[in-house]
Amino acid sequence: MIIASNVSKKFGRLKVLDNISVACSKGECIALIGPNASGKTTLIKTILGMVVQDSGFITFNGNNILHHWQYREQIGYMPQTGRYPDNMTIGHVFNMMKDIRGTRAVLDEDLVNAFQLKALLNKRMRTLSGGTRQKVSASLAFLFDPSVLILDEPTAGLDPVASEILKEKIITEKKKGKLILITSHILSELDDLVTQVIYMQEGKLCFHKSIEELRTDTGEEKLNRAIAKIMSKV
Amino acid sequence: MTKIVKYVMADIIRNRIVLLYTAFLFIISFSMFSLEDNNSKALLSLLNIILIIVPLVSIIFSTIYVYNSSEFIELLVSQPLKRKTIWLSLFTGLAGSLSLAFLTGAGIPILIYQANAIGFMMIAMGLLLSIIFVAIAMLAVVKTRDKARGIGAAILLWLYFSLLFDGLVLFFLFQFADYPLEKPMIAVSALNPVDLGRILILMQMDVSAMMGYTGAVFKDFFGTYPGVIFSFGMMFLWTILPVWLSTRKFNHKDL
Known about the structure:
The complex is a heterodimer of chains A (234) and B (255).
Chain A: E1 2-11, E2 14-24, E3 29-33, H1 40-48, E4 55-60, E5 63-64, E6 75-78, H2 90-101, H3 110-114, H4 130-143, E7 148-152, H5 160-175, E8 179-183, H6 187-190, E9 196-201, E10 204-210, H7 211-218, H8 223-233
Parallel strand pairs in A: 3-8, 3-9, 6-7, 7-8
Antiparallel strand pairs in A: 1-2, 1-4, 4-5, 9-10
Helix pairs in contact in A: 7-8
Chain B: H1 2-13, H2 16-35, H3 39-68, H4 70-77, H5 83-113, H6 117-143, H7 147-175, H8 182-189, H9 193-205, H10 212-222, H11 225-251
């Protein structure tokens, strides 16, 4: 579904992405793991077209994303920190997104209901806590029933109840055969979610393995232990 | 495009600074007209305040607003929208709401006390200056990544157009006082939208006689139909050029 070939990106002298090639297909739930500043967010941003790569190309369903901005209709993106214009209300933000995406028959309002955002529709974004903003971002990402979900640190800032709701939602979407990309530092959370792991370090792709492979390779059952073993080896 | 403009404008109009700006313009305009018994004199005082305040508020507010919206812009970019649409919507939203603020704050009092050619010219200049300085602010933002540097650049640009430019022109005039500079001055004044606005309003007011020979040359040019069209053309150019440049830059910017 998403194929990146030899993608490189430099910010000034710093090489953030170094010749990265990955292929992600439908029905997978991929964890993007790596230390801070390893290029995870940049990779996500190049897939979304926010950062333009210096060389290489990315295709979405066979179309080069540089020339087909419409592909983003099929992506739901949840940013690391969601900030919205101060004086918009939650209702405004939802309405605007609905306007942008066009009227659709099916709106997936599971998360909106689960997070009880309907009661807060008239609240200004400025008055919201970080956690509530994350809830808004999450609900927006899932709202249009996209076939690809890209979640950047989805549970950071969410309370345990909310992050459990979000995890349940991710699992149900995974079962529907969607492609899900998650970055997170809380590996224990990813255990029951992901099917594949992409490990990045200093802008390079170290490996892209399925979780079973990783388990047999390292002999560890838990993802955080397996990754710790690999990190100490590298 | 109108989809985003609508929401951006609704957001800005509720902004406290824009509300204060509107109220400030309103109070200043009304008090000017009430204090002076001669409406033309009041308009002249108002002119000087407007030529300082309108560019300042437009450029600083827009710069800060666009920087603060950086995460929101990222979110919009991740939606099925062209980058050009996002950037132009943001520009239209900012320019539209600041123009609206000027129209309510200064436009209403001017229309009440001076609903003639001078008043209309003044409102037109205020609106054009609002739009031009939003455009310049957006160019400054897209060129600099760092917020502090961007705001600094915006302040310097305002300082340049409002004060430094006139100082430089004056210096230039004194240095070359032996040469006939009246005609080149027309070309030089086109390099600054604030000056263009000032000249156009002064020409309507018939106070050019006080500016000596230069005033007469100016009157000959800016007082005529082609002159007015030329200056409006220049001001449109001052809007379109920064918008075009910033859009082009934004299209390839890493967010």
